[in-house]
Amino acid sequence: MKIFDKESHKLADIFPMIEGEELEDLKRDIKKNGQIEPVILYEGKILDGRNRYKACKELGLDVKTKEYKGKNPLEFVISLNLKRRHLSKSQKAVISLDLLPLFEKEAKKRHDNPFGVPQETDGLGEKSPNPPISSGKASFQLGKLIQVDGSYIQQAKRLKKDFPEKLEEVRMGHKNFSEIKKELRLEKIKKQKEALQKEVLEKPIGKYDVIVIDPPWNYQDDSVYDAKGFRGTCPYPTMTIDQIKNINLPAKDNCVLWLWTTNKHIFYCKDILDKWGFEIKSILTWDKENIAIGRWLRSQTEHCILAIKGKPYYQNTKYGTLLREKRTKHSKKPDSFYKMVDEICGGRKLDYFARSKREGWDSWGDEIQ
Predict the structure, then answer these.
(1) How large is the greatest C-alpha to C-alpha distance in the chain, in angstroms?
(2) Per-residue tens of pLDDT for the chain, all 369 residues
(3) pTM of the predicted model, to two decimals?
(4) 325 in a domain, yes or no?
(5) Are residues 236 and 169 in the same domain?
(6) Does one domain contain both 172 and 216?
């Protein structure tokens, strides 16, 4: 990297330079207090102090320099940058990907020639065989030196393999792994949503006597949740209230409908059911037996509205309005609910926006496994 009239050393370039307000702060400090630390040169290039060099040049000041005379410039660069820089764990992990090959090379060099003396040859001009430095050992040593654990390095490797274009954003400190994951998840959801928009109004074949529907309710209007960390990003594409209303349910003239809803959305259900042509009869509450996230009250319940159209078959003598079963994975409804519906409702059954296939039911949804 060229910095005005001086080249920076390849070892220094592994670490990102500062920019923006951080660089302006450095310039203000040097302007006020002068250049306190010299710029370190090695092999005629800047080994340490690229930011100081740039700041001095932009201020029109002479640069104080000093020659590095140590034996391990790599560890010198790592040590200084870790002491001075506020690098995130994500940054350290990404930087370690560039450092590891160099670290292995330096370690092997010291292993092959620990005293810096000329090596013997085998008479053919080849170096005497020495056991190679262990890649694992070098990785462990680097991990200790750079102070980042293996899980972060593994994340960096996966990011480099799958989304190399995102790597530089992390290296520069613009984003961390969590932010990149969220960004990738949102991109995936956007693509899924675009696909869902095209398919969601398509009907399953035929009509049904019993329909269970679990719409992908939209929480995006609750931006305060994301801002204050009350809830994570919804892991599937969602629909607005109007989009849900416009679903053309494949219901027979005599049909039982079970509409799953959340505490937040329960008050929209009357309008939705009116639009679908169903009459509310009762509400089932699911007690999930453990507390989840929530802003005003932490959520432990979910509701399923029982509604009918016409005069469907319905026979119930033992089930009440409360169902207790521990929640499992996100949005998966309890098995005891489907057992109940099987017992009290008859006819052809459809699980709309299903998460899995179920014996005796037709299932429709893009998350079926």
Answers:
(1) 99
(2) 777 788 999 888 888 898 899 899 999 999 999 999 999 999 999 999 999 999 999 999 999 999 999 888 887 888 788 777 778 889 888 888 887 777 677 666 656 655 554 443 323 233 433 333 344 566 666 767 777 777 888 888 899 999 999 988 898 888 899 999 988 888 877 776 565 544 444 456 789 999 999 998 886 544 333 433 434 444 456 788 999 999 999 999 999 999 999 988 999 999 999 999 999 999 999 999 888 877 788 889 999 999 999 999 999 989 999 999 988 766 689 999 999 999 999 999 999 988 788 889 998 875 554
(3) 0.48
(4) yes
(5) no
(6) no
User: 164 with 210, same domain?
Assistant: no
In terms of residue numbers, what domain contains 259? 204-364
- Do 37 and 167 lie in one domain? The reply is yes
- Beta partners for residue 259, in sequence order: 213, 305
Please give the DSSP secondary-structure letter assigned to residue 188: H
12 touches 46 (CB < 8 A)? yes
The verdict on residue 162 lying in a domain is yes
b/e map 219-228, b = 16+ CB within 10 Å? beeeeebeee
For residue 281, the number of C-alpha atoms closer than 13 Å in the C-beta half-sphere is 15
Half-sphere exposure of 334 (CA within 13 A, CB side): 21
Same domain? 84 vs 228: no
Co-location of 235 and 161 in the same domain: no
Whether residue 333 sits in one domain with residue 219: yes
The number of domains in the chain is 2
Distance (Å, rounded) from C-alpha 155 to C-alpha 171?
13
Q: Note whether 256 and 210 are within 8 A (CB).
A: yes
Burial of 282 (0-12, 13-18, 19+ CB in 10 A): exposed
- Please check whether residues 229 and 358 belong to one and the same domain: yes
User: Which residues does residue 45 pair with via DSSP β-bridges, in sequence order?
Assistant: 42
Q: How many CB atoms lie within 10 A of CB 83?
A: 7
